[in-house]
Specification:
The complex is a heterodimer. By secondary structure, chain A is of the alpha+beta class. Chain A contains eight helices and eleven strands. Chain A folds into three domains: 119 residues, PAS domain (Beta-Lactamase, 2-Layer Sandwich), CATH 3.30.450; 78 residues, Helix Hairpins (Orthogonal Bundle); 136 residues, Heat Shock Protein 90. In chain A, the strands form three sheets. A five-stranded antiparallel beta sheet of chain A has the order 2-1-5-4-3, sandwiched between helices. In chain A, helix 6 crosses helix 8. Chain B contains five helices and seven strands; from the N terminus they run E-H-E-H-E-E-E-H-E-H-E-H. In chain B, strand 1, helix 1 and strand 2 form a beta-alpha-beta unit. The longest helix of chain B has 13 residues. Chain B is globular and about 30 Å long. The chains are: A alpha+beta, B alpha/beta. At the A-B interface, helix 5 and helix 6 of A face helix 1 and helix 5 of B.
């Protein structure tokens, strides 16, 4: 019996020692009781250098609240996996990004500690950053030839009108419409990488919201003759010709709503419309492709300003999209601008 | 007497387009492909500058700041143009009078030039 237990212990010790991830067991006060040998390969330290040390000793100063938060949450929720991401210092002074899961096993007599599992994802993060940078650069570069094409299309359209050639003018006009669609896709890509990457830079500035809404809708209106007010929504309300935009302030919160009278959204899809990449699939309706990024981008921008965004819809009747932003302390109606 | 626009743009396609658009609208157009003449003060004074942010080897924002510092050019309107969505903020910080994003609506650009020139 004893031999079997010993063999089993040996087996698991070998597994832990040879794991790629770092495993650390902390006591309830955040002192490391056990540090697995893989810390040598991953962060350059001998286990003895970290054993007996406290929770935050190697954590990047900007990320300490994350690790501390995970530890505190684990104390409150024994037996539950808590996940997070933060940077740890390598012995060579560089920082490595770790994907971390922790589990409170204080009440398990065999462990009596909080187990942290660290996975080094530094390389993966670097690749992701390179990919995002590339998408950003590519989107930017695409805009220059697209600008030329758009301008040529508009010059052509004008020439045809002057020559009295309405048919050709109409074709040129349609070309211009497609170029606008292309521009929207490129802009969505660009916005997407800015959100995913180093994050949007929010700039604190005072401005008149209603004036801004007017400017934006004027700009949009210039690109559609058919609809009164917003070309982006053209995709989903080709047959209904009115789009209503409202803004109001209530109890300090500013709410802006955009309502269309087009194809609407199915109830089952409503939970997911703000998800990254999500596009509603409905074979019975001729919906228009895009990148599935528009609402995701909008929700990220609003969320980062502590606002709320939501939508209501009735299939075949139309949809209403709203966002609200809280008041900024001491600034009355002023809002963040990005 | 025709009003003169000095355009700094390094993309040949857009150079061609600006020439067509502005000459048709009755302006005198001069196009240079990099900002050096502006920094060295070797140019014919126009009634308006149209400045692309991205020029080979230099940032149009720096050129705008330079123009706005020189007595000879500080009162001449500068319109910045860029594919960078942050151009609004950058142009404002550099002292530009206005900005326009690429791709642009031809008539919107013309109206803007008309307003500032």
């Amino acid at each position: 019996m004893d031999v079997r237990v010993q063999e089993s212990e040996e087996r698991f010790r070998l597994l832990i020692q040879n794991a790629f991830d770092i495993i650390v067991i902390f006591d309830a006060n955040g002192i490391a009781k056990y540090v697995s040998p893989s810390i040598k390969n991953i962060l350059g330290y001998e286990p003895a250098e970290r054993t007996g040390k406290s929770l935050l000793i190697n954590t990047h100063p900007d990320d300490r609240n994350i690790k501390e938060g995970m530890f505190t949450k684990a104390l409150q929720l024994p037996g539950k996996n808590i996940r997070g991401e933060f940077r740890l210092r390598h012995k060579d002074e560089s920082f490595h990004t770790m994907d971390v899961v922790c589990l409170n096993l204080l009440n398990d007599p065999r462990i009596q500690g909080i187990v942290f599992n660290y996975r080094d994802i530094t390389d993966r993060k670097m690749l992701e950053q390179q990919k995002d940078d590339f998408i950003g650069i590519a989107s930017h570069e695409l805009k220059t030839p697209v600008s030329s094409i758009k301008a040529y299309a508009q010059i052509l359209q004008e020439k045809f009108v002057e020559e009295g050639n309405q048919d050709s003018a109409e074709l040129a006009s349609k070309m211009n419409g497609q170029i606008d669609r292309l521009t929207t896709l490129i802009n969505d890509l660009l916005d997407f990488t800015r959100i995913e990457g180093s994050g949007l830079n929010l700039r604190r500035e005072e401005y008149d919201l209603n004036e801004m809404i007017k400017q934006v809708t004027d700009e949009m209106q210039r690109t559609t003759k058919k609809h009164k007010l917003d070309v982006k929504l053209d995709k989903y309300s080709p047959d209904a010709d009115k789009i209503t935009i409202t803004s109001k302030v209530k109890a300090g919160n500013t709410t802006v709503c955009v309502e269309d009278f087009g194809i609407g959204i199915a109830k089952e899809a409503m939970d997911r419309i703000f998800d990254k990449f999500y596009r509603v699939h409905d074979p019975t309706i001729n919906t228009f492709p895009g990148l599935g990024l528009g609402l995701y981008i909008a929700s990220e921008i609003i969320k980062r300003q502590n606002g709320k965004i939501w939508a209501t819809s009735t299939k075949n009747k139309g949809s209403k999209f709203c966002f609200s932003l809280p008041p900024v302390e001491g600034l009355g109606k002023k809002l963040f601008h990005y | 007497m025709k009003k003169k626009i000095l355009i700094t743009e390094d993309d040949p396609g857009l150079q061609d387009i600006f020439k067509i658009i502005f000459e048709k609208a009755g302006y005198d157009v001069e196009i240079i492909s990099n900002g050096n003449p502006l920094l060295k003060n070797e140019f014919n004074t126009p009634h308006l500058f149209l400045l692309d942010k991205q020029l080979s080897g230099m940032d149009g924002i720096e050129i705008c700041k330079h123009l706005k510092k020189q007595k000879k050019t500080q009162d001449i309107p500068v319109i910045m143009i860029s594919a960078n969505p942050s151009i609004g903020v950058m142009a404002e910080d550099a002292g530009a009078n206005a900005y326009i994003e690429k791709p642009f609506e031809k008539n919107y650009l013309l109206k803007m030039v008309e307003e500032y020139i």
